[in-house]
Amino acid sequence: MESNETTHPLAEVPADKTPETETNTSSANAQPVKGNAEEEAAAVTLPTEENIQLEETTTSSEDELVNEKEKEALLKYEPKQTKEEVIERLKEIDANGGKAERQEIDYLKQTFYKLQKAETDAARKSFEEQGGTPEAFAMPEDDSENRFKTLLGDIKEKRNALAAKEEKELEENLLKKLHIIERLKTISESQEDSSKSYNEFKKLQQEWNSIRRIPANKVNELWRNYQLYAEKFYDLIKLNNEFREYDFKKNLEIKTHLCQAAERLADEPDVVSAFHQLQKLHQEFRETGPIAKDLREAIWTRFKAASTAVNRRHQQHFEELKEKEQTNLDAKIVICEIAEGMEYDKFKNFRDWSDKTQEILALQAKWKTIGYAPRKINVKIFERFRAACDEFFKRKAEFFRQMKEEMNANLEKKRALIEKAEALKDSTEWKKTTEALTELQKEWKTIGPVPKKHSDVIWKRFIDTCDRFFEKRNKATSSQYTEEQNNLKAKRNIIQQLNEIDARDELNEGDENNVRELMKTWNETGHVPFREKDRIYKQYHTVIDSLSNKMNISAKHFPSSLYAGSKGTGGKERDKLLRLYENMKNEIQTYENNLGFFNTSSEKGSGLLDEMKRKVEKLKAEAEKIRQKISNLDEETPKEEQL
Fold first, then answer.
1. Average pLDDT over residues 299-324
2. 172-209: per-residue pLDDT in tens?
3. Are the C-beta atoms of 212 and 173 separated by less than 8 Å?
4. Is the pLDDT of residue 70 over 60?
5. Residues 254/288, Cβ–Cβ less than 8 Å
6. End-to-end distance of the chain based on CA atoms, in angstroms?
7. Which band of pLDDT confidence, cut at 50, 70 and 90, is reported for residue 259?
8. At what angle do helices 430-446 and 375-424 cross, to 10 degrees?
9. Using only C-alpha atoms, what is the Rg of the chain?
10. CA–CA separation, 201 vs 46, rounded Å?
11. Average pLDDT, the chain
């Protein structure tokens, strides 16, 4: 039988209309062998009033079902986030011979061009933000559209081939059914043995039912002709009670089975699948012939009740879906209002924009967790949210652009201050230069932040310049400076004498004693300036190591010579610690002087300030340890050794 499967929900039939009431009136006065003509006609496996009523009553729900199927389609296909995902799905369809629903092909086309438009808009926006003009914009070459169109072309060809094949099959089925109708017409007018004709009739019925689809515009006409000649056949042969009862029994078994299958659908977890399965059961119910008249209403009522249960679940499912979509819409409206309610005039610095950016990103993440809104508003609410987000990031970009200009201007101002400071760093006019550098530090504090990549560099350059001057000033204004300069001069002289001895090809007899005396003098000489100590120490030990090798004197003997004739090691250690303690105090004083002029208006400035404070605290702790060591030495050393 041709495929005339309904796609509409089952509508309830009025109770006063029996679904299987016979419609045959052409032989109302005929006298069958057994029973009456009404019962014989009912035995034909044809659509009866039950089928007609089902088809008529379900038509009224057509629009509602179409809308429901459209909703299902929205949830049916996996969302595609990139053009490559669209292309991959088209490849799968192409590999499958182009077999896919037309709705999915349309969805993939729309998705691809939406994604492509979004990429183009983003590229154009980026181009214009970087200073390009709209006329100069050109989208980078991308072969994805060519691949997309090629795949669509291949799929179209395959689908056209499938459609042609299907059309051919429909026409072939039509010819087969027309041939069956002609044979039915022949046997309905034949006067041959009824048993033989009945067997041929049942065979034709089976052939008819085995042929499924035909052109849609021929369905009703063929069905009417088939029914006409089938009824004529039953009128002609006056099917006896035995054949009729046998058909009734078999049809009852089939319809009972269909009722049971429909009742089981009430427990089907997938409501939509249950609804579609019910439509197939209705098709089978229609194609099954009549049953005994006294059972018809009961079996139909049972099948209708099971159908009603499935239809109610289906309807409830979409009502719940509608309610959930409304809830989703309410949640999305709240998110839109939050995004639109940003108080941009209160965003004054990077931290403000950073915090609000996290809020926007959190809103976007939350949006993705919310399902669809009602279809008629889903796109609009998304565009509303996207517009709010675009406005935020547009304003943020403008803020950063302005800040970049401002920070570049600040960078130039600070570089100018550095140049002024560097011009003063070697000045010996201590008071005047101190006042000038102090003013530069105050001015530095009033200047805002600079680009991050330059911040540390220019700050270190500025503070090192100031430190250099203040260190020189501190040393110049204390007796330590003069003493350290004299010590440096003396130690350089010692190194020079040692180098002269080391430069000889052969050492003289008294050279070893001279070396020991020079080492003793070195040991008795005090500290040198802090910046020179490592360099002078390295020069000294280099020449000592060389002389040690030439004289074949173990390096361990040099320390004893170092202290020969000098005061006790405790006194030497005390002098060393005392010098170190004084240097640390001067370094702490320099740091504390600079701390007072540090700009803490930015995160970076605050971080550097904290780092400098930690250095000062560390220096103070080390200085205290050295002071304690000096105190301990004073307690352990006899007073005459301290003098």
1. 88
2. 888 888 898 888 888 877 766 666 777 888 888 888 88
3. yes
4. no
5. yes
6. 128
7. very high
8. 170
9. 51
10. 13
11. 76
pLDDT of residue 18: 34
pTM: 0.37
The tokens describing 184, both together, are: 């039915």
Which burial class, exposed, middle or buried, applies to 273 when counting CB atoms under 10 A from its CB (0-12, 13-18, 19+)? Answer: exposed
Residue 36 or residue 130, greater confidence: 130
Question: Which of these, 546, 543, 545, 554, lies nearest to 498 by C-alpha position?
Answer: 543
How far, in Å, CA of 18 to CA of 290, rounded?
12
CB of 331 closer than 8 Å to CB of 373: no
Q: How many helices (H) and strands (E) does the chain have?
A: 22, 0
Query: Other CB atoms closer than 10 Å to residue 621's CB: what's the count?
Result: 9
Instruction: Count CA atoms closer than 13 A to 557's CA, side-chain side.
Output: 11
- Read off the pLDDT of each residue in 7-21 and give the average, rounded to a whole number: 33
DSSP per-residue codes, 363-383:
HHHHHHHS-PPPHHHHHHHHH
Contact in structure between 433 and 427 (CB atoms under 8 Å): yes
Q: What is the pLDDT of residues 391-427, one digit of tens each?
A: 889 988 988 888 888 889 988 988 998 898 888 888 8
Classify the phi-psi angles of 98: left when phi > 0, otherwise alpha if psi is within -120 to 50, otherwise beta.
left
CA quadruple 217, 218, 223, 224: dihedral sign: positive
**DSSP state string for 507-575:** --TTHHHHHHHHHHHHHHS----HHHHHHHHHHHHHHHHHHHHHHT--TTHHHHHHTTTS--HHHHHHH
| Residues whose CB is less than 8 angstroms from the CB of residue 560 and which lie 6 or more positions away in sequence, other chains included | none
Q: Is residue 310 classed exposed, middle or buried when 0-12, 13-18 and 19+ CB atoms within 10 A define those classes?
A: buried
Cβ atoms of 398 and 344 within 8 Å: the answer is no
Q: Are residues 488 and 536 in contact, defined by beta-carbon separation less than 8 angstroms? A: yes
Cα(182)–Cα(177) distance, integer angstroms? 9
One-letter amino acid at 164 equals A
